[in-house]
Amino acid sequence: MCHTDLTYRDGGINDDYPFLLGHEASGTVETIGDSVVNVAPGDFVILNGHAVCGQCRACQRGRPQLCFNSHSATQKMTLTDGTELSPALAIGDFVEKALVHEGQCSTVDPEADPAAATLLGRGVMAGVGAAINTGAITRGHNDHVTVALELGAALDAPVLLHPADDVLWQIRHPATTFDSSLMK
Length: 184
Hints:
two-stranded parallel ribbon, about 20% helix, about 180 residues, Quinone Oxidoreductase, Chain A, domain 1, alpha/beta
């Protein structure tokens, strides 16, 4: 469970109750809709917080994390009485089966450890995105990155993707380790 889920629970994010917590997941695609083309039944995927449109100004400028038209599943998950659920960060994966937009799925090597792959969808992407896009880690510069909570799982990823000469990592709460072999 991520701290974000606890913040939902405590009323700090979204009061559109009932909501379905969970936003870090990996799994196998079971079925697809008629218009789905990017994933197939049997694919092992990680789930992403939103599906970028690829067409808006932010996407065209190489900043998909700022997408103006991100997609999520249009058919909502429901309780047995038909009450629609509001999925946490457009995923809501604390269920046996989740319903998401195909663009929220990224295929992963089926041999990958599901627990490690799960971190790629949110924890690593948030950590890598913050280090590269906000922290502006660049090649040839000395950088200092402070990492907290589960984002500590992404320690090696920014260096692998966008190496600096010297990066000083300060880990405030190392919750887990990151297997950099998934990023290669």
